[in-house]
Amino acid sequence: MRVHVVHRHITQTRRGMTLVEVLAVVVILGLIATTLLVGFSGAFGKAKHELAKSGIGMLVGKVETYRIEKSDWPSNELGLAVLSAPHAAPTASYFVTADQLVDPWGRGYLYVMPGPEGHPFEILSYGADGQPGGEGENTDLSSAGLRGKTDQ
């Protein structure tokens, strides 16, 4: 018994992507990237606000320690610079490094004495835009707004 094997040549055509398909993929990837970028930028803005709040809280404690040791609040002329070199020795309990006097947006924290609403002083950051007022990432942060009244 003989079996005949028939070989069929099946031609497979390699099909490449058309320009329209490539463009569709690029557009979809672009939309996904934009969505992720918007989501992450909002999270980074919130994180910077939290860092600024922490920085202000730390500086408030250092200014209060300065007041206890020097029996006076820092002047408006020197401001927060009294907490850092060359005005303060690194061994002082109120000493901070120069980079701790800068908010997360790269601008120095502001010091005002007397502060608003009976506060002896106020420490401020104007947020992402560096201008008074604003909303969202541009919201001002103030030591007066972060805690209750400070004893004078």
When the domains are counted, the total is: 1
Name the CATH superfamily classification: Glycoprotein, Type 4 Pilin
Spell the H/E element sequence.
HEEEH
What's the multimeric state? Answer: single chain
- Which architecture name does CATH use? 2-Layer Sandwich
**CATH class descriptor:** Alpha Beta
Global Rg: 30 Å
Percent in strands = 5-15%
Which structural class fits the helix and strand makeup? Answer: mainly alpha
Strands side by side in the biggest sheet: 1-2-3
Give the total of beta strands.
3
Named CATH topology: Glycoprotein, Type 4 Pilin
- Tell me about the largest β-sheet: 3 strands, antiparallel
Give the overall shape, derived from the CA principal axes. Answer: elongated
Helix-residue proportion: 25-40%
What does this protein structure show overall?
With 152 residues, the chain is mainly alpha-helical. The chain has a single domain, classed as Glycoprotein, Type 4 Pilin, CATH 3.30.700. The protein is built from 2 helices and 3 strands. It has helices at 19-70, 143-146; strands at 110-112, 122-125, 141-142. A 3-stranded antiparallel β-sheet has the order 1-2-3. The longest helix is centred in the first third of the chain and has 52 residues, at 19-70. The radius of gyration is 30 Å and the shape is elongated. It starts with 18 loop residues before the first helix and ends in a 6-residue tail after the last helix.
